[in-house]
Design goal:
- The chain is elongated, with a radius of gyration of 30 Å.
- It has seven helices and four strands, in the order E-E-E-E-H-H-H-H-H-H-H.
- The termini are far apart.
- 48% of the residues lie in helices and 17% in strands.
- 16% of the residues are buried.
- Strand 2 and strand 3 form a beta hairpin.
- The protein has a four-stranded antiparallel β-sheet, covered by helices on one side.
- By secondary structure, the chain is α+β, with helices and mostly antiparallel strands.
Length: 174
């Protein structure tokens, strides 16, 4: 049988009764604010509140979302949309793009914010989804072909060597 919470607590500031309640609060980060409903113990006499760890977890997702917005990072809904556009499960996205098998579950549930490098990678893949093939081939251990510009340089060097072989070495004039 689960333990029940007491109906009241003693206020550490004034000694009066505190009651369990959920009240409006404002969270802030880097000048941005958001309204949340904060559960906790609230004094019936003074303005004291006791927010326990479970209470803080209830509003943690709102803070993570606010932090992502303030830091210019993708919101969880956009991360999920990009992953779905790429046709990857959460687990596969973590394996191929990095972060581990549960990373995307955490990003998309707003448990943790996405990192700046992952944010950049997702933004690139959103615009160029075909770039995922490069990552999939790398993950499969396939050797990647050199870029086109580098290949042109290699062909030119090969052509110069071929001409040198056909002409042969210069004979010395004596």
């Amino acid at each position: 049988m689960p333990a029940t919470l007491p109906r009241t607590k003693t206020c550490p500031a004034c000694g009066n009764d505190m009651v369990r309640d959920t009240r409006p609060d404002t969270i802030a980060y880097k000048g941005l604010t958001a309204k949340v409903r904060q559960p906790g113990w609230y004094c019936t006499k003074c303005d004291e509140a006791v927010i326990e760890s479970a209470d803080a977890r209830a509003t943690e997702k709102a803070f993570v979302a606010l932090k992502a917005c303030a830091d210019g990072l993708l919101p969880s809904e956009k991360i999920a949309a990009i992953r779905a556009k790429l046709g990857l499960s959460q687990r596969r996205a973590g394996e191929v793009l990095g972060g581990g098998p549960r990373a995307f579950q955490k990003y998309e549930s707003t448990a943790i914010p996405v990192s700046h490098p992952m944010d950049s990678l997702l933004r690139i893949l959103d615009v160029h989804p075909d770039a995922l093939d490069v990552l999939l081939r790398r993950k499969a251990g396939e050797k990647l072909k050199p870029r086109a510009k580098a290949m042109r340089g290699n062909r030119r060097a090969t052509a110069i060597r071929a001409v040198a072989v056909k002409v042969g070495p210069r004979e010395s004039r004596g």
